[in-house]
Amino acid sequence: MTDAALPAPARRGTRIGDVLACQLRVIGALVLRELGTRFGRDNLGYLWLFVEPALLGGALGTLHYVVAHSVPGGLNPFEFWVIAYIPFYLLRGVINRAPFGIQANQSLLYHRNVTVLDILVARNLLEGAAVLGALIIFLVFFGIIFGHWPSDPFKMLFGMVLMLLLAHGVSLLISAGAVYTELFERLVHLVTYLSMPLLGAFWMVFWLPYEAQRLALWIPSVHIFELIRDGHFGNLVPTTYDIGYVLAWIAGTNLLGMAAIRRARRDLVL
Amino acid sequence: MTIWTRRSPSTKLSEAAGTLDAAGWSGPVPQPGFGARLRRWARRHAFALTVILPTALAGIYLLGIAAPQYDSEARYLIRGRSAAAPSLGGLGDMMSGGALRPSAEDAMGIRDYLQSHDAVASLRGKLPLVEIFRRPEADPIARLWWEEPNAERLLDYFRRLVTVEYDTTSGITTLHVRSFRAEDSRGIATALLDLSEAMVNRLNERLQQDSLRVAREELARAEARLTAAQLAMSQFRERERAVDPTRSAAVAVETIGKLDGALAQARAELAEAQRFARADNPRLTTLRNRVEALDAQARAERERVSIGEAGLSQQIGDFERLSLERELARAQLASATASLEKARVDAQRQQLFLLRVVEPNLAEYARYPKATLTVLYIFLSLSVAYGLAWLLVAGMREHAA
């Protein structure tokens, strides 16, 4: 009530709810635009969004299933590899796309309401939705074919959200760096490829000897993969994770990432 | 003609908000309300309010108010004998002893027991647990809040102050107990160690009694079988009036043989006498009588051995069945005795041991609460959270029209 006593026009549109709504509208529009530019309307169109990660995960799972590598702990190898690969696909996809995020959408920045952060959030949200969709397809598939439903789907969902947030934080840093140097574009694929065995997607903590476990638990993504496996397999295998540690990493990377983006925006030559 | 009148602006703020519009009289610009001023002030001092203030509060509590908490630490090992060692029989087994090795399942079992309501309940029987957690020197935030807590609340509080960690590489379990007095910490730690020792002993007793019980039952069964066999044997002897039918049969056979021999000899002599003696010779009569007597005797003996219900062969069959049963019962008794002996030897050495590596110590310095570190953590995490929020809000504000 008392707010109305202040000069009205200046207050209009600066209220936090209004600007948040505006930002959400912008992000929504950017997601739609991204969908269009990435998949177009031909062929399967937007369906590729889910089909792409599902195909990759499924192919990898089938490959390991056929080769019949047994997984320690007696897990179904197909399930193990799919559950490992799909979150990994999210992490890798978000980080690999990060250096091109600003460059590809630079022209949008002429609109006053579109910020760099909006563009990156939209891209990463799209990626997260795609991978989550693929994961759900596989979970239903597992439930029907193997008769094994996730023991705690909310843990899996939470794990995927954590993975997206962590990847988002790192991708912000990389995007900001890509404004200054081409080095990130050149190196990001190499680094994600080389770090593949370290990230914890394709092994479990309890396979390792105690000393190696302690080292492995320094890596934040290891915790997330373990959390997702805990959600899927439940008590079938022992899992080790610390959500607080992951949250600290997420807070740290996102803080630095957003700060870096703000700095980079000033140096960005349109 | 119309006369335009304007109402004078209200002096009350609540009305002013509704009646004054952009085109209205300027009037006196009202002082912004208390809420608005507070909000503006809060916005200006956001960092102080969301980061500095909580950190300062935590600092005041931790450095000024919080009662010192003393930590008592104890370490122990749970070891068991390897069950798969090849047995060499009673004494040999005892000498070789079986390898002692850490037993992870039992250690985890004891660890879980120590953090269970069961342990808390047993502990309450030994120590005034609630009183210990509500010592007068304890500060009102850290102490147990309820004077008569229900079991769940006490268990939650207990788990906050007592940690048990099992290290898979060394097999050592570390027990940490915090409380407001050093003696209390040590008391609880000692009591917990005693409890886990009692638990280990209970487990052992269970194991031993199980194995001993089976061996004892086996022995009783063997004894009963042997007694029954012996009884059947004596009943047989009484009934048949024969101590050992086998031997009587042998004697009978021997008698028949002797009779046969004598008969053959008598017949030979008779034949010889008939060659040269006359038919009325008295010697012939004697010989003939002897042959007849011997023949009759031998036939009678044969009949006695083999024919009829009371025949020796029947007796021998029964007797041999009984004596075989007795032999078997004896062998079973011997083996049952041996396994009981072995079970007793196994029982004599414990299957599980709790080895105290470090006895609970009496703390001299209150290690908790770790005030500086905690304040630093709070400050850092609040700062990061503030930074994130600031960046997010700043990002949103860029969308302002």
From TrEMBL, chain B:
InterPro entries: Bact_polysacc_biosynth/exp
Domain of life assignment: Bacteria
Record carries keyword Coiled coil: yes
Transmembrane region(s): 46-67, 375-395
Example GO molecular function: protein tyrosine kinase activity
Cellular component, GO annotation: plasma membrane
Keyword Iron carried by entry: no
Residues forming coiled coils: 205-239
UniProtKB keywords: Coiled coil, Membrane, Transmembrane, Transmembrane helix
Family annotation (PANTHER family): FERRIC ENTEROBACTIN TRANSPORT PROTEIN FEPE, TYROSINE-PROTEIN KINASE
Identification of the protein by name: Capsular polysaccharide export system inner membrane protein KpsE
